[in-house]
Amino acid sequence: MTILTLNRKELEKKIGKIDEKIENRISMFGTPIDSINDNEISIEVFPNRPDLLSLHGFTRSFLAFLGKDKGLINYRVEKPLKDYRVVIEKSVKKVRPYTACAIVKGIKFDESKIREIIELQEKLHASYGRNRKKLAIGIYPLEEIRLPITFLARNPEKIAFQPLDFPKIINAKQILSKHPKGKEYGYLLKDCEVYPIFEDSKGEILSMPPIINSEKTGKITEKTKDVFIECSGFNKEYLDKTLNIIVSVLSDFNGRIYAVEIEDKGERKKYLSPNLKAEKITFSPEFLNKNLGMHFNENEIKENLSKMGIGYSKEKNKYYALIPSYRTDILHEIDLAEEIAIAYGYENFEAEIPAISTIGEESKTGIIKRKISEVLIGSGLLEISSYHLSTKEKQFKKIGYKDFRDKLIEVVDSKTERNILRDSLLANSIEILSENTDVSYPQKIFEVGTVFYSNKNAIEEEERLCISLCHEKANFTEIKQVLEYLLKMFTLSYEMKESSHPSFIDGRCGEIIVNNKKVGIIGEIHPSILYNNKIFMPVASLEIETRFF
């Protein structure tokens, strides 16, 4: 959840006087009011709507919701002018492989617009960009840059420039140790042999993502008219969406958007960025009405989608929703049902008592999972909940599997890089530890969740428990004690048999056997796995089925 604080007078200039009715509409729009006074209004923006994290982004969508503005906005992108080009060198592919770029011209910046775009940038960094882990954003005055631009990587000792708000030129290593932003985000580059930089055709460094811009080329002022924007990171779709959010706001500042030609030398392809065309999603009116319990006709569906800034078209008896290029949250037609519910107003739905009689009770599986959680939380462990979807790299390669073809259950047309159904909780546990190396130790975590495996032509599900202990003295004895205590609380006995597993150290790994059946694995994680995942403390883990509890 991100808190967006807006100047009340500026907001009222755009949406009208904020009275009790408008306050209620703001909350019913899905952005609850956190606080409000004569000068400011703070609203809560959920992570699935990063496009609302600015005054112009919020008012654009809210005015449509009120029916005061048109629905889908088609932003025009001009063709690239001479030298509007960015080259991605092969050298950067291992550290920060992708970028999405644009140029926006003719902006009349003032203090409030500069503040708005900087705050949007930082809020996107913190939320959608996961504190710059997934993406970093740079915005530069075009008049200080000589196009074309190169995105490359160099040895940190050979990178030197004056970082933003710093008195002198220093090298990249010194930036990480001396600059406030370097100290805050330096861990993102800590183990990299080369650091990424953007450089113009004069050899002037624009920035070193994801840390800091250059003082010379990376500072927007009220004199700035034209800007170059780049988003760099690991997932091209993330970068494209983030760029679209920013350039749509700059267009709302009355700027003119120009495309940039991107030449990716590592992947040997060229393409234009940004792409602000609406995405078409097929939907069925019957599906929407069934899920909403309503009887909306075609015009009512169209009107409600328009209130959420979504377009509508019908071609050869097929219905399409046209999703704005800056929206990140519409992935399936069930999301359209939610949009229509918000537009129609949850307060307008009439509650109905079901025509059937049922008695609700907690399932046996739910009871077992709850009791396992209670025991482990009482023992000082922290419960986590991770994604059911993973990647080949995270689910298999980074935990030691060399041949995993028979294990793959791949999701067709996944909307994200995560396209593999997990067959293990251990991989997710290792991933969590890898992402939290900057947090204090000991780290003792567990997850009770579903894994998936292929059984002939069917996909089967299985509930498992994974426990991981990570600190300087974590070992087999400690994880075995946790297992014994847990099973004792369920009055269960077990046996252990020495075994081997690609994730564990030979001789410190065992099978967990209950009622003469193998139900899990336990041991110390192999140092090579820790190294692959940049974990600097020993880890002891177990993974076990929960059906026998």
Describe the protein's architecture and organization.
The protein has 549 residues and is an alpha+beta fold. It has four domains: 2-65, Phenylalanyl-tRNA Synthetase, Chain B, domain 1, CATH 3.30.56.10; 77-273, Phenylalanyl-trna Synthetase, Chain B, domain 3 (Phenylalanyl-tRNA Synthetase, Chain B, domain 3, 3-Layer(bba) Sandwich); 281-346, Phenylalanyl-tRNA Synthetase, Chain B, domain 1; 364-545, 2-Layer Sandwich (BirA Bifunctional Protein, domain 2). The chain has 15 helices and 29 strands. Helix 8 (285-292) packs across helix 10 (333-344) and helix 9 (298-307) crosses helix 10 (333-344). It starts with a strand and ends with a strand.
Distance between the termini: 36 Å
Shape annotation: globular
Per DSSP E runs of 2 or more residues, the count of β-strands stands at 29
**Biggest sheet: strands, sense, closure?**
7 strands, mixed
Strand order in space, largest sheet: 13-12-11-8-5-16-17
The low-pLDDT segments are none
Level-2 CATH architecture of the largest domain: 3-Layer(bba) Sandwich
Domain unit count: 4
CATH-assigned homologous superfamily of the largest domain = Phenylalanyl-trna Synthetase, Chain B, domain 3
